[in-house]
Amino acid sequence: MHQDRILFGSNHMYVYYDPVNKETAEGTPAQIDWEFAQKEIAQAKGFQTGADGQLSKEQQLAQEQVLELLPMVSESNAISEELNKHKSFEVILISGAANPTEGSKGTKVMVKMKNLLNGNTWLWERGK
Length: 128
Hints:
The chain has helices at 34-44, 57-82; strands at residues 4-8, 12-16, 87-94, 108-115, 121-125.
């Protein structure tokens, strides 16, 4: 269909433009950009998008960080599987209440890496 999207990894998006049939799916904007594609993926994964005011500023920040990490984590898992590294990656949220020593009340977004051979687990800061 005209303006279908394909995402490869976390960096490459292709939009199919059909010169014969210009009929698009309902709700598709005239111009598709990276931001629209990321919001579309987030909605498909169950995240709220848009400024409907239902999320607090802290929740919005955590959600933005999660949405930033999800494509990278998916790509890391694909690479790990392809190279037989026996590692799995996932995005996790840690409540500020769970770690009172840091004095942070906000939710921390981290990446959990697990060695599938021996079960060892590491938590990485978002910037790593």
